[in-house]
Amino acid sequence: RRNGKIWGRTTGRSMRRRQKKSLEHYNQKTSAEGLREPDEKTPRAKLQGQKRKAPLSNQQLLDQLFAHPQKKPKAPASRPSRPLPCSVAALRLQLQRLSSQSSAAPRGLHLVNRLTSQSAWVILCGQRLMLLNPFRVEETLLFKRLLENNILPAVSLQNPVQLTDGSLGGAEYVETLCNMEKQNPDLNGNVLFSDARLVANGFKIKLTAERHLEVTAMADCVPFLGVKDLREILTAVLHKKASTVRECRPLKVTNYLQAEAVRLARQLPITLPREDVEEIIRRMEQQLGETSRICIHGRPFLQHLADVPSTDKEAQAQFRPLGL
Where are the annotated segments for Disordered (predicted)? Predict the structure, then answer.
């Protein structure tokens, strides 16, 4: 028993010593960690450290709104102005003038549309609807251009034709011919006539050194062209004072150029686009004017269709419903 009591006492003491040492060791460790501040906090620690703000009540929101009143927008700076005189009567008079101008009939020719069944076009001429044949206009324009500018090519003759007072119709015709424009003499003393009224009609005439007149070349595209046609040119120059090529065309040359204009016009497409017809109308107004509205065959360019009513009463009277 005695030995058992001694052993129990020693074991109890040793256990208390161990507990004391472990407690001291724990206290030292915790004290050391308490002196050292942590560098980074965990997200959970941060969330725990932050205090959530309580939502504002309605009264607090109203207090904040009234505590900071809204700023009123600044009024824009006034711009400089100047009073302008205005007359209602003058405005009314101006409106009446504008309305009368707009209701007036349009001047010139205005293209409306093409008839699908034919090659003619409907145009508006003032208060009238008219039918236009563009091919007749184009024929006339071509004929006019050929009369003014076309030069018939002259072909050299194997035997030149001598020109005398008798063949030309008198000394006055020879004198008229000699007064026409000529070139400078060549080395042989021969002089060629360069007058456009002779050259354009297909005649090449030479004045020799011996003062003889002869036709050395003549156009062969015109059938039976000869000295009689040259006399027509000289007659126009002598008696009609013709100064342009168009005024000096002989009848045979005129008929030949007319046939050429018809041939060229027939080469146009049957259906012309709107732009081409507008161009034809523009050239017709510029080159032919308002008086010459007839084709080379004596037919009119325009045919009247109907009158456009200017008031509602005229329209109602013109377009009455059919009584069936």
Answer: 1-55
Three-class SS state of 120: coil
Give domain limits for the chain: 109-133+270-316, 153-259
Question: What pLDDT, on the 0 to 100 scale, is given for residue 231?
Answer: 96
Which of 278, 284, 275 is closest to 139 using CA atoms?
284
Q: Is 50 helix (H, G, I), strand (E, B) or coil?
A: coil
Spell 233-259 as b/e; 16+ CB within 10 A means b: bbbbbbeeebeebbebbbebbbebbbe
Q: What is the largest CA-CA distance in the chain?
A: 194
The residues that bridge with 207 in the sheet, in sequence order, are: 191, 213
Inform me whether the pLDDT recorded for 251 exceeds 50.
yes
Residue 324: the pLDDT is 43
For residues 245 and 51, the model is more confident at 245
Compute the distance between CA of residue 41 and CA of residue 49 in angstroms, rounded to an integer: 10
Neighbours of 231 (CB within 10 A): 19
Q: How far is Cα 167 from Cα 164, in angstroms, rounded to an integer?
A: 5
Task: Give the pTM.
Answer: 0.63
* 243: DSSP letter: -
Yes or no: say if 248 and 176 are a contact pair by the CB < 8 Å rule.
no
Per-residue model confidence (pLDDT) at position 298: 87
**Burial of 294 from C-beta contacts in 10 A (0-12 / 13-18 / 19+):** middle
